[in-house]
Amino acid sequence: MRLFTLLACLSVLLLAATCNPDAKTTSQMKSLERTWLHAHEEDQGDVRVYRPNTYAFPPSRGRTGFAFDHNGLFTQYDIAPTDGIEGRKGRWTAENDHTLRISLDDKKDPDYKLEIVSLENDVLKVRRVEL
Fold first, then answer.
1. DSSP 8-state symbol, 123
2. Is 48 exposed, middle or buried (0-12, 13-18, 19+ CB in 10 A)?
3. pTM of the predicted model, to two decimals?
4. What start and end residues bound the annotated signal peptide (predicted)?
5. How far is it, in rounded angstroms, from Cα 99 to Cα 110?
6. Domains of the chain from N-terminus onward
7. Pairing assessment for the beta strands 112-120 and 99-104 based on DSSP bridges
8. Which has the closest alpha carbon to 104: 64, 70, 76?
9. Beta-strand pair 73-79/85-96
10. pLDDT digit string (tens) for 51-98?
């Protein structure tokens, strides 16, 4: 009877371990959930650098960016014709632990992917991949 109970407990633990997302991936996706603005001064080649909107940016004529919400909602911030910021709603989905697919509701632009190069110390580095 003890062996059966032990095997049953091990089976449940194994099943739980395979059903839960990786803790590192979950933590990384959770840390994306905020508004990010483009720190174009820090870009490196095709890698774009973003910082939280609370960061003390140097003066700029405008900054683009985006916001990730935990429920898959996405807002892309573009520079508006009046030099303000214009938000475009959409959705984001994680394809894997380092690739996000972005789809904007207005369909003015095709879907694209953001490859997460790194995310640490409130600095997000991504590579945009057109589909």
1. E
2. buried
3. 0.79
4. 1-23
5. 17
6. 21-130 (2.40.128)
7. antiparallel
8. 76
9. antiparallel
10. 999 999 999 888 999 999 989 999 999 999 887 889 999 999 999 999
